[in-house]
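can u do me a favor
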């Protein structure tokens, strides 16, 4: 397996945020962590990235126990994982190519020509052309998301973490991002961990869905299984979405 989490607890400012999290993500799986606002999705993602230290429990990523990694191993792990931040998190004062190639410039001091070449490759993988020298403010929300995805791809990662990849986008742009995520998954054979409250993502992309509410994973399984879950919260959450999605506009 690629990621294994056992009995993980996270406390922030003395408040228990994640409670007894258990999950396993297999190689090349699209694993969706689905839950409402404030349920702890971003905290869980940050914990997986080693940005938040758990109070107890174990977290193993690509064979490394996160609580025991050396700085060198952590750097190696960073290179094998890509992160797509909520709201793209681009640097406004840098061009698109500098944003996407940032780590190549910072860590490897590669020459501009080489960075631009690699940036060009990942930009075309996300369906963007002629944006290299633009500033982020010149792009639409959907294009910014694509740039954020391109940046996550720059090291050809084994795992991509997505935080709310469709938040703040209209229905049509959301659908195009979902399609892009599937294309990238198939093309680069990545393992994807996607945290979202977007039911369409769960339905269309997920091999496994873990439903989180108030810091606890209530159940894990495929969409069809969860639709008829014994847990009332899950049934309600998923079925409300189904109704909504079947509405034609
Ligand atoms: N640094 C922090 N210190 C204290 N509490 C925090 C911190 N970060 C998050 N929390 C709390 O943890 C809980 C979960 O927050 P989190 O951001 O993970 O939710 P989320 O599921 O990502 O929500 P959303 O869908 O709105 O992004 C919230 O109650 C939040 O207030
Ligand atoms: Mg969040």
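np, heres the sequence
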């Amino acid at each position: 397996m690629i990621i294994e989490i056992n009995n993980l607890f996270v406390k922030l400012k003395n408040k228990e945020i994640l409670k007894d999290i258990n999950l396993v993500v297999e190689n090349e799986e699209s694993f969706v962590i689905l839950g409402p606002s404030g349920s702890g999705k971003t905290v869980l993602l940050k914990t997986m990235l080693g940005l938040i230290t758990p109070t107890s429990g174990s977290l193993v990523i690509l064979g490394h126990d996160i609580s025991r990694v050396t700085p060198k191993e952590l750097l190696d792990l960073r290179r094998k994982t890509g992160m797509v931040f909520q709201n793209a998190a681009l640097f406004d004062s840098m061009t698109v190519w500098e944003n996407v190639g940032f780590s190549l410039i910072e860590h490897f001091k590669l020459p501009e020509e080489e960075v631009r070449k690699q940036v060009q490759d990942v930009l075309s993988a996300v369906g963007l052309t002629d944006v290299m020298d633009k500033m982020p403010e010149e792009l639409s929300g959907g294009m910014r998301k694509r740039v954020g995805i391109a940046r996550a791809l720059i090291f050809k990662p084994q795992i991509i973490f997505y935080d709310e990849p469709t938040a703040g986008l209209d229905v049509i742009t959301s659908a195009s991002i979902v399609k892009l995520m599937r294309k990238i998954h198939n093309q680069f054979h990545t393992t994807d961990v996607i945290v979202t409250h977007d039911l369409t993502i769960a339905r269309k992309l997920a091999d496994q869905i873990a439903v989180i509410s108030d810091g606890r994973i209530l159940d894990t399984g495929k969409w069809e299984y969860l639709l008829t879950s014994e847990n009332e919260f899950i049934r309600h959450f998923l079925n409300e979405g189904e109704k909504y999605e079947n509405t034609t506009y």
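Residues 12-89+158-245 form a domain with the Rossmann fold fold (CATH 3.40.50.300). hope that helps!!
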